[in-house]
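User: Last request for today: this protein with nicotinamide-adenine-dinucleotide, please.
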Amino acid sequence: MRILVPGGAGFIGSHTCLALLEKGYEITVIDSYINSHKKSLQRVLDIVKRNNRVKNISIDIEIADIRDEKAVEKLFIRYKDLGNPIKAVIHFAGRKSVQESVLDPLLYWDVNVNGSINLLRVMDKYNCRTIVFSSSATIYGFSNSLPLKENSEIKPINPYGRTKVAIEQILNDTYNNQTDKWKIANLRYFNPIGAHSSGIIGESPIGIPNNIFPYITQVAAGILDQLSIFGQDWPTLDGTCVRDYIHVMDLAEGHIAALEYLNNFEKKLVNLNLGTGLGTSVLELIDTFEKVNNVKISKNFAGRRIGDSCKVVADNCLALSCLNWSPKRDLEKMCLDGWKWQILNPRGYD
Ligand SMILES: NC(=O)c1ccc[n+]([C@@H]2O[C@H](COP(=O)([O-])OP(=O)(O)OC[C@H]3O[C@@H](n4cnc5c(N)ncnc54)[C@H](O)[C@@H]3O)[C@@H](O)[C@H]2O)c1
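Assistant: Here's the final one, the structure of the complex with nicotinamide-adenine-dinucleotide:
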């Protein structure tokens, strides 16, 4: 079964491509490489070849923007003509920085929303109506009680989050049209961290990392001087923010589980939280990282950041009950694998 993976060269996309290939799926990636590296998918192939002792495995890679309708359509035509049509899409492509979305909201609406509309239009034209979409926990409002359920209030506070809500709404409307039978999974990720256990693929941010985990690994490696912790007066056990960290390979496997779940239906729309359901404070994360890897993280405390919330933790019961899936790798494993990737690749893929 051939799957199209827009954004497949990125952090979560590359780990998912690996999981897909290991399960025998054929994949085509469309990626502009605006936030990724050509080496990531080459390394995915290296891992699959090594683990499975196969030589002739490949990923069809199209370097293009998902807003380019002709480029997307070309892929659907290619595989239709080969008698091996694209059956489903796992859609990662988009911009993901909250800060950048505040500075350039038009870019975010254009890439994330127009890009997704373009993709859906072409999918529809070629009768491919199964999609797993990368949504985010940022869509939930601050005032919700914890843990966050799929029916908690949706109230994002930044343009990035609003583009994710808009895409979910477009997918809802698409699903509700009476003529076609769509199968849609909106996967709302919590905080993916870590790397594949080989240390061969991982997160390779371009420039200074926006997220805490690559920041920690780069401070530990001496590339960055110090980690700033934003706020030590939050109403949590140690005063620092609490998040729900999930190992990127658990997340990757969640996508395949979602795809296989959708395949049981003629028509389906489902929203699912993908998290562990466990809250970890910033200090607990640093502490675990230091202990399991025997390293020291230089840190300081700064004031709270505008727009941060105190605690974000998933209720993952729906995902556990629908998908034949559960997160298997604990925080220690996330820290071990993320550090292995960092020491084997001090400058990421560069
Ligand atoms: N990493 C997280 O913490 C997180 C959390 C929640 C949701 N998400 C969402 O998951 C998805 C994947 O996240 P990631 O962390 O792997 O990000 P990433 O930036 O590593 O991957 C996104 C990929 O999409 C590509 N891309 C961007 N714009 C494109 C375009 N117009 N056309 C084609 N390709 C394009 C990038 O080059 C990159 O390879 C994103 O949609 C993101 O919003 C990520």
